[in-house]
Amino acid sequence: MKPDPTITLLIERSRENYDLSARALGQATAQRDRQTQKLRTLEDYRAEYRTRMERQAGGGGMAMTELVNFRRFIAQLDQAVEQQQRSVQHAEHAIDLARTRWQEANRQLKSYEVLQTRRAAAAEQVANRKEQRESDAFAQRIAQSRKSPF
Question: Quick one: pLDDT at residue 76?
Fold first, then answer.
């Protein structure tokens, strides 16, 4: 029995959509990982710079201009960290959207595959019934031919 070409086409298109959405989810996850790594790098650099400032200020003192410059730079690093945190949040949101699209594509693909399976099973059942009727009719003709002498 031939598969329904319409369902086959829908399954092919759904599989393509599924593959695209899976790829998009992977790219969104990779982007989030890159943004998270940048955030960690900035946070580490900020912590290291603060530690250096505290050591220098506590160890032998520092000129007022150096202290102002250190604080200004720390403030810039704080802003960079906040901006990078927003980038990570944006990347997380992109992952959520991509995951939703992927789940929908998966659901659609599975639905079409189930539909194809059900239609094939129904067609097979119809074919089996037809074969059974033909077999019963043949058996009935044989039985009748044995009863009648002619």
Answer: 96
